[in-house]
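Our collaborator T.R. sent over the components below with a one-line note: 'Predict the complex.' Nothing else. No constraints on interfaces, no templates requested, no preferences about which chain binds where. So this is a plain run: every listed entity goes in together, and whatever single assembly comes back becomes the starting point for the next discussion.
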Amino acid sequence: MRFTPTTIFLLVIAAILAVLFFVSLEYTAEAKLFPFIIMGITALLIVGLIIREALSHGKNEDVPQVKETTRTGIPLRYLSAPAWFAAFLMMVYLVGYLVTAPLFVFLYLKLHRERWLLSLILAALALAAIYGGFTLGLGMDLYRGILFT
Amino acid sequence: MFEEVFSGLAAIFQPTVLLFMLMGIGLGLLFGLLPGISGVTGLAILIPLIYGMEPQLALAFLMAMYAVCYTGGSVTAILFNIPGTGPNAATLLDGFPMTQKGHAGRALGNALTASGLGGLVGAVALALLIPAIRPVVMAFAAPESLFLAILGISFIAALGSGSMVKGLIAGGLGITIAFVGTQPTSGIPRYAFGTAYLLDGIPLIPLALGLFAVPTVIRLINTGGAMAQVSSRASTTTSDIIQGIKDVFIKWWLFLRCSVIGTLVGIVPGVGGETAIWIAYGHAKQTSKYPERFGTGFEEGVIAPESCNNAKEGGGLMPTLAFGIPGSAAMAVLLGAFLILGIQPGPMFLQEHLDIAFTLVGSLVFANIIGAAICLVGAPWLSKVAFIRGHLLAPLMLLFISVGAYAVRGNIVDVVLAFGLGALGIAMDRYGFSKPALFIGYVLGGLAERYFYISYSAYSWTFLLRPITLGIIAIIVLGLSSGPIGNLLRRLRRR
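Returned assembly:
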């Protein structure tokens, strides 16, 4: 049996459902009846689809056109998005939104070779939108980061 | 009843509501003009802003935004051969050839007038259907409502794009996500794994942002360049635009038929705007005196899909408001907005909140007229939005998604959750699983479980044998089996 990406995705979902199923066993009948029905039907559909995938030997599987890859076969450009998301989260966690907003926008734009003026203007706009819109407009107390609390 | 209708319609003329609708229209046109950013993404990004707003203000704002997305999308379709949104795809076939022939203004006049007026037809149809449907929905008790929820999910799976089985799995997964948190009837915490965070369940906004908005940002980061790659030297003259507007009135019968097609298709859950436009385009071609001119820059090929795609939204609101069954991902996100505002669409909604239903009708009318007018006047300038580089938008969108996810409960873990669910959204896109089905399953999951226990407590398993329930089950079975049976019959015929 060849494991296509779809099959692996289905197996991950099936594993999650299996964990939830075993956790459900401890619940009262009222709390587990409807989840059992839904998870049971979903699990049956997953099994059916895995069998169909196996029988078709992944004929219908889309194979991504990858040119530039790392040693593990992951396209390099696909790593930049998770890296930016992680950097953003880390910045918010450390210094909060009011510092992250202009700093992140500026750094992102400069690292993508945008002009200084445009980068500065957009960073200022981001700060104005976050502070004006959320803090002043909606009266929200935005996260300040562990360094400022 | 008339008092509620007038009060609902009058609400849109309050200065604050007008201001927010105008902002919504501006944002909707922007989302429509930017290829790859759909109305659903827009709704998901804007939902966090409605916390604490009056329901009529919040819903008029969201509706105005969503109503004009397709109007904006038609501009890039005609001028650059790039559909701003999926339902503008058919407009390319004749819209861009008209631009190449030097009739961009006429095509824009055709599209924007048909869009604006088509939206009006959809809104009027909704206004007329609401009083007619009220007695029908009152016949629905818990068992019928349960199966209506299942009908909604199964139709999204069966009639949406991609594999039906994958759609059903996504729907099941969505319902399963809704199980996380305190069980509604017994108060027992489920699937919280000992954490306080999961006791309230997976929150709606991080899920919506993760599924629909985060993948868009990731695509922007990965692709980076200008969202529209083709430039156009289209020129538009006032006389050309006026001729385009006149065309719609000259071909009023085609416009009306395609608007009605859009409205009817919108009522059926799961048949998206992407399908509706091709039905309208095909119908226009079949009934035209000049079918050979379609695809060469023929105004009927622009009027037909454009009158259909905006009219669809009026129809799409019908099952959402009357039965609480969203017919599309956008309607599911809108349903989520209702829930955030403490309103439950469904059989009781039209009894208790008829005024809100008519505020939505009014905002649809207003947004379609103003949106079309803005585009008619400013199309050549507005279209430049399509050339904004992805790198300029990506950090700003990431920031707004993050603040949106955080703002709801003031919990930074919601931001991490939204980003994490983005990975699920990408995987679902990649492997062809329906995100709308998952989201609708999630939105309807809690409701379906409540209806299930009420039905089971009141009737035991005999709730399955009630006449209307049996009718709905038959429709579900027919809907799910029609595709496979049709395929089987075709194969047998070939042999």
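Summary for T.R.: Chain A touches chain B through 56 residues (CB under 8 Å).
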